[in-house]
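RECORD TYPE: inverse folding
INPUT: structure tokens
STRUCTURE:
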């Protein structure tokens, strides 16, 4: 059976520089690679990798865009909330949910929803 080893989404953007700037300056990612000819870049923060790209001729618009969100498991979610709530557009404020997660969501510069959550059992731990 094939083993899946990672998921690295490619987010489409109209402006590569603005998106790189958002992920580096606001979320603390680093630029892992960039190719201006391809209008593509790779970003990394800890164990999370995201690629960004302008759509190319091989990627056809079938009338449906991305309709979900990107969920980041983090530690110290409250500290992250305090930092991001003044820098970003909020989708929903931090809250502890019945399913045992403390989480919030923001919009990135392209309108993608980014959710950040931590299990309630871990909230307050500094690991």
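DESIGNED SEQUENCE:
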């Amino acid at each position: 059976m094939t083993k899946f080893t990672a998921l690295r989404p490619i987010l489409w953007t109209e402006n590569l520089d603005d998106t790189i700037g958002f992920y580096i300056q606001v979320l603390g990612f680093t630029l892992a690679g960039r190719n201006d000819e391809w209008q593509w870049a790779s970003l990394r923060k800890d164990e999370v990798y995201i690629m960004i790209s302008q759509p190319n001729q091989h990627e056809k618009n079938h009338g449906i865009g991305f309709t979900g969100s990107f969920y980041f498991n983090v530690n110290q979610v409250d500290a992250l909330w305090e930092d991001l709530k003044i820098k970003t557009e909020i989708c929903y404020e931090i809250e502890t949910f019945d399913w045992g997660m403390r989480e919030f969501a923001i919009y990135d510069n392209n309108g993608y929803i980014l959710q950040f959550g931590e299990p309630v059992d871990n909230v307050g731990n500094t690991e």
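NOTES: The chain is about 15% helix and 40% strand.
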